[in-house]
Amino acid sequence: MLTLSKVFGEQNELVPFIASYKNELETVKVLHTLPAAKQQRFNELTHELLDSLDDVHDLKACAERSRSNREHGNAVYTKRSKTNESDRRESLLLACHLYTQAILQAENVHEELCLGYANRGMALQEFGLYKEAYDDCECALEYGYPQKLQHKLIMRQAHCAWQLGDVHKLSEHLSWLEQQQLNAGYVNQLEQLQQQLTKLQEQQSSEPKEELASEQVPSLLILGKNHKISAHSGIKGRHMVATQSIQSGDIIFKEQTACFVPLEPGLICQQCAASVLYAPIPCSQCHQRVVYCSRRCRQLNEQIHSYECAGYKKNLFTLLGVSHLALRMVLCYVQEWQTELVRGSSVQEKWKMLMDKARKCYDWSSASQGLLSLCMMSHLDKAASEELIYYALCANLLQVYLHKCTNFYEQLGVDAREDWDLLIAALILRCAGQLLCNGHVGDTILLRSQCHMMESKLWRAPFRLHLGQMHKFDSVALTTALNLPYLALCNHACAPSIRLHCDGRAVSCLAAKQIEADEEIFNCYTLDYRNSSCAMRQAQLQQTFKFRCKCINCTGSKPDEIFLSFNRYRCEFCAHIFVPSKQEEFKWWESESNLAIKCSKCQATQLFNWYGILRNTLEFCSEQQQRRKAYKAFEELDTWLLDYHSLKLHLAQQLIAACLTAKANGATFDDIDYKQLSRILDHLLAGVAAQHGADSMTYISHLTYLMDLAAFGKYKCSSEQLRAVRTAINYLPTDTKRIFVNYYNDFIEQRSAANGNANANANA
């Protein structure tokens, strides 16, 4: 099988060296104007690569695997307890998980898909996930559920519509059912639902009527009145400035991207970028590499996905990195850009007219996202020749893919295809260059990778965790790559003045500190000054963004003082305090290689026996004796790891997580355990707040430990700490926030209120 590196390597040898960069169009033209023999071989390689990526699955084997999972789910569902609620719920969740596996395994075998969806909808409804169950019934009907049994699904949808309070859908389904020949049991259900419809109608008639508005597309940009965009022609360029004093935590603006790509395809909805919590709806055509959180999202993304489905099926996009998001930008904005491109008589004239538009100044606060994106900076002119050729080859490959595997050009409705081949490839290349220095990634909190969302130990009801399960949401992951052209107007500083919080497609930009009037508002393009050395940042900035930072944290007399404070050791031999001398030594515990960390004074290689002792105990935290050993080992770290050392914070997180996992699995804890864990947690939270900020996703993920200990009644939270927890929860995306809020209200708020009443009674 051909590989991307092999094809690009051979194509690179066919392409002449590009001595001077002119623009994206001229760069792409180099790939289309080779000598005849070279051009033929170049084109053959592109087509051969795309053909070799075809990932054909054995549909018969897929159907068998799907059927096996579904039948296993049926067995679990049938044997569910009718009396023990806990056992019944466990069976329902396991059945849902098995039905989901059946759906994912079915590929495009409709006979299995319809049964998988129908059965999962049945289990979801019984668990109380009515919206998801309704969608599953609709999917089952879409994929050909047997007509003679469709009344079962319609009855199920009617029940879900009643639970969701949807009068229109309930009335529609009941009208259909009234026309069917139903047995006595279904007639009884129908009559009960008709009574519920009457109640809902009466309830609605007694409520004030609201005018029905058409569905509105959410605004892509919501601006505060506390900043402006200043345009400068010098090195500084366009940048963002505060027009008034902005308090820490104030929202400066919210931007909703029109295009993004998931970095975790199986976990993130392709349309709204929300975490797919319970019931993923996959595209059946592209090996389940694309999932949605609802049928509505699948419908909204239908056109874009029609151009990408074949690419996902070939697993093409994982090979191309930022160029995939560049393709998505072209797919999203090309119709807007096309108004300029159709005006020119030649390909050069078309390109010039579009670039003339990109160079103009606009009212950036009211400009469309397509226009803002067109005007973003690019540093391809400063790229090395091999880097430029690589991204040009990616753009060419994607342009050929669009022509060979999709109906993109037919939908675009253009003539002179050869000119448009050049233009589309040039646009993809331009977008890739822009994203290299303007792209952003979104992070969120996810369930640990070792768990699945339908794990029975997690849930006591939809979006409601069992006591002691909050710590399993301690994983922070980069989940989306986003195009945010308004945010891209912010310049870089190693101590940013803003903090970003993602909620699906939307990103809120909050002040990370007080920003005075006329002060520039800065983002940070790299790890900030607390989490990287000046040399690390400068190397990344020069390589990716083609500039050298001159902020105060880079030009001061001690640019690494804060960063090094999180990495100070005491020598095991001479007690000298030192920091590692090499960049790769700062996070040596994350590397599989055995690095020799030496004292800067005596040059002795550190043994780090204490690290091995503590690490070895983490596997046995279910045993009280091993936990005691771990607590003692952690306390002794103060001898070797100073202050909020990054390694000590890492080990604190590992130890607390291991202990809470052991307790969730049935280990017995006493007051000594809780006292030790509370002490370690206090150190962890203080250190993470100092290193990352108390509003960072890293900090919020560690609050899950506090929430479990507080829910047990074993962590004494002050009213100020509880207020801080509530504030931090508000930074979470909507889908995850619901779980955190419910846990806080179910266990922590109730316990806090009970303690408050007890204290009041004691004082009385």
What does this structure look like?
Among the domains are: 59-200, Serine Threonine Protein Phosphatase 5, Tetratricopeptide repeat, CATH 1.25.40.10; 238-257 and 496-525, SET domain (Beta-clip-like); 528-566, no CATH class; 569-758, Alpha Horseshoe (Serine Threonine Protein Phosphatase 5, Tetratricopeptide repeat). It is 53% helix and 8% strand. A four-stranded antiparallel beta sheet has the order 1-4-14-13, with no helix packed on it. A hairpin with an 8-residue loop joins strand 2 and strand 3. Helix 5 packs antiparallel against helix 6 (110-127).
> How many DSSP-defined strands?
17
Report how far apart the termini are. Answer: 80 Å
Q: Over the alpha carbons, how many angstroms does the gyration radius reach?
A: 29 Å
Instruction: Tell me the helix content.
Output: 40-55%
CATH class placement of the domain at 569-758: Mainly Alpha
**Contiguous runs where pLDDT drops below 50 for at least 5 residues:** 212-217, 757-764
Strand order of the largest sheet: 1-4-14-13
CATH topology of the domain at 569-758: Serine Threonine Protein Phosphatase 5, Tetratricopeptide repeat
- So what's the overall shape? globular
The secondary structure category is alpha+beta
**Beta-strand level of the residues, as a percent range?**
5-15%
In the CATH hierarchy, the architecture of the domain at 569-758 is Alpha Horseshoe
* Major β-sheet profile: 4 strands, antiparallel
Q: Quick check: average pLDDT?
A: 92
